[in-house]
């Protein structure tokens, strides 16, 4: 079981563009059209499978919302921050 990050650790390590909302971190990625967002969501899904840490995603017309949390631990862990950084690298 991974250790939960403290509030200070989360704030210090939160990647660019991400915000904390309760026990999750989230970012909304913007796109020029719907299919570009769908393709990005697919890339995030493939990354999540490789890393075995899966986000919640919501696909909109020109945006994709990505949320990470560690459900078993009940909050935000290193794995969530690491996945947020890797997700940023896809853009």
From TrEMBL:
Enzyme class: lyase
GO molecular function: 4-alpha-hydroxytetrahydrobiopterin dehydratase activity
EC number: 4.2.1.96
Spans traversing the lipid bilayer: none
Keywords linked to the UniProt accession: Lyase
Catalysis performed (reactions): (4aS,6R)-4a-hydroxy-L-erythro-5,6,7,8-tetrahydrobiopterin = (6R)-L-erythro-6,7-dihydrobiopterin + H2O
Database matches in Pfam families: Pterin_4a
InterPro entries: PCD_sf, Pterin_deHydtase
Family indicated by similarity: Belongs to the pterin-4-alpha-carbinolamine dehydratase family.
PANTHER family: PTERIN-4-ALPHA-CARBINOLAMINE DEHYDRATASE
Name assigned to this protein: Putative pterin-4-alpha-carbinolamine dehydratase
Species this chain originates from: Halorussus caseinilyticus
Lineage: Archaea, Methanobacteriati, Methanobacteriota, Stenosarchaea group, Halobacteria
């Amino acid at each position: 079981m991974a250790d939960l990050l403290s509030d200070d650790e989360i704030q210090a390590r939160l990647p660019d563009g991400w915000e904390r909302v309760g026990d999750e971190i989230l970012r909304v990625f913007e796109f020029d059209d719907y299919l570009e967002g769908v393709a990005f969501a697919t890339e995030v899904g493939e990354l999540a499978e490789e890393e075995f840490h899966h986000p919640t995603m919501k696909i909109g017309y020109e945006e994709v919302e990505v949320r990470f949390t560690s459900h078993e631990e009940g909050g935000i862990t290193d794995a969530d921050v690491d996945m947020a950084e890797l997700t940023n690298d896809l853009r």
